[in-house]
Design goal:
Elements (H helix, E strand, L loop, with lengths): L9 E4 L6 E9 L3 H8 L13 E6 L5 E10 L10 E8 L1 H13 L3 E2 L4 H8 L5 H12 L3 H11 L2 H25 L9 H20 L2 H9 L1 E7 L5 H9 L17 E7 L2 E7 L9 H16 L2 E7 L16 E7 L15 E2 L8 H11 L4 H4 L8 H21 L6 H17 L7 H8 L7
Parallel strand pairs: 1-6, 7-9, 7-10, 10-11, 11-12
Antiparallel strand pairs: 1-2, 2-5, 3-4, 4-5, 8-9
């Protein structure tokens, strides 16, 4: 979509609602400076760019609404690529609302969710992955999710997909030249080189797809289910990880009837901890329902922490629902000593009473999830669901093209069609393919003022 279709001047409060020391009202568009002039003392248009100056916002009768700092960012050197003005004033709800209302009365219109960032994208200041990185940066709840968002905002994912697309475009150009001028005999090894070019792009696509689970975990958290037999310390483990007594701890079997869910940040990894009812023959219908909920949670888990009593004999192997979750055995009550039957069993040994072994548990969870610094790499790339869908579409097109190119009996024009589809799919990731519906969905998730 052309930026010419967005010639209105927008305004919004860019700080969270509520009371605080400072609030910020942002204006962007062709009349941003004129709006700020009308709303203030008229000196904004003469102000030096990117220099904060004290000024007052006045109502229609000339009375001061608020005083603060006004900064002008002329196009194209602004966040949106348009003329922008920012007013930093006092952080009261009422005063901030009146400042915004004054801007609107002077000719601005209220910005929608994500409209500033959308304009930055439309004006070429950000690609679509960087725009999504802004949203991820705001929402980041852990060190690793912050690092991944920062990486995306710096354009690493956009560059990698754009480079793959450019490589594929070059390969497609060679293929179409081969199709259009077969009598020229461009190169006896053209087919082999075309396959190598497509395979190189496929390798990049596969590497990016491999980060999908990491991206989902960083944005949604690791669904971590704590399960085991009654009275082995499942609720004690939850409480110790949380740092406070969230679940009731009792020697009475069946105390936990329902699942309890809480979130923590473990070594920079967001975990959604779920404490479940003990796995045993139910004593009543209520406990039976709790056990059924446990089974459903196990089936949906990313990682399972199976808790057992290290001080008691090793129980017979229990049959639990099959699933793709990673499994980690945790032997609790180490302070009571370890029963000989557990000798040689691979497990994390700890005591919820003393706290012994919890550093080992944290490091083991990190390693099982492949979130160590070595696994994560120097540049964090973690694709989201939209990226994954586009990459899967590109992958399907690349594989289909390779199948055609590997079969001398099939016409290479079919491979060209598949490569064009892959090219479009890769272009959707940084926003090289226009789609108003796609942009509407993405930017509607932003807060107003960003």
């Amino acid at each position: 979509m052309s930026p010419d279709l967005h010639r209105t001047t927008i305004a919004a409060v860019a700080t969270p609602p509520g009371m605080g020391a400072v609030s910020l009202v942002r204006i962007s568009g062709p009349a941003a400076v004129q709006v700020a002039d009308l709303a203030s003392d008229g000196r904004v248009s003469a102000q030096a760019p990117r220099t904060a100056r004290h000024g007052c916002i006045r109502d229609g009768g000339g009375r001061v609404i608020d005083d603060g700092l006004i900064t002008v960012f002329p196009a194209p050197h602004s966040y949106t690529g348009e003329d922008c003005v920012e007013f930093s004033g006092h952080g009261g709800m009422r005063v901030t609302r009146e400042v915004l209302e004054r801007m609107l009365a002077c000719g601005a219109v209220l910005a929608g969710p994500g409209e500033f960032t959308r304009r930055a994208f439309l004006n070429g200041k950000l690609d679509l992955t960087q725009a999504e990185g802004v949203m991820d940066l705001i929402a980041a709840q852990s060190r690793l999710s912050l690092r991944a968002a920062r990486s995306q905002l710096e354009g690493i994912l956009g560059r990698r997909t754009t480079e793959a697309r450019d490589h594929l475009l070059e390969t497609l150009a060679h293929l179409e030249a081969w199709i259009d001028f077969p009598e020229e005999d461009i190169d006896p090894h053209t087919g082999t080189r075309l396959c190598a070019g497509v395979q190189a792009v496929l390798t990049t696509v596969d590497a990016l797809l491999a980060t999908a689970d990491q991206g989902r975990i960083l944005r949604e958290g690791v669904h971590t289910v704590i399960f085991g037999q009654p009275n082995v310390g499942k609720s004690s483990l939850l409480n110790r990880l949380l740092g406070y007594a969230r679940a009731i701890v009792s020697e009475t079997p069946g105390t936990t009837r329902d699942t309890i869910e809480e979130s923590i940040n473990l070594l920079g990894i967001p975990l959604r901890l779920v404490d479940t009812a003990g796995m045993r023959e139910a004593a009543n219908l209520i406990e039976a329902d709790g056990i059924q909920r446990t089974i459903r949670r196990i089936e949906d888990a990313d990682i399972l922490l199976e808790v057992a009593d290290a001080s008691g004999p090793r129980p017979a192997a229990a049959v639990f629902p099959a699933g793709a979750a990673k499994h980690l055995l945790v032997l609790n009550k180490l302070d009571l000593g370890e029963h000989p039957s557990w000798a040689g069993v691979a497990a994390v040994r700890l005591s919820c009473l003393t706290g012994e072994g919890f550093d080992t548990l944290a490091n083991t969870i990190r390693d099982v999830l492949h979130f160590s610094e070595v696994d994560w790499g120097e540049h964090a790339v973690a694709i989201n669901a939209r990226h994954q869908a586009s990459l899967l579409a590109a992958r399907a097109g690349l594989i289909a093209a390779l199948e055609v190119l590997d079969d001398p009996a099939r016409h290479p024009e079919l491979a060209a069609i598949d490569l064009r589809e892959a090219l479009d799919a890769l272009g959707e990731i940084p926003g090289r393919v226009d789609s108003d519906d796609l942009l509407g969905v993405i930017f509607s998730r932003f807060c107003i003022g960003k």
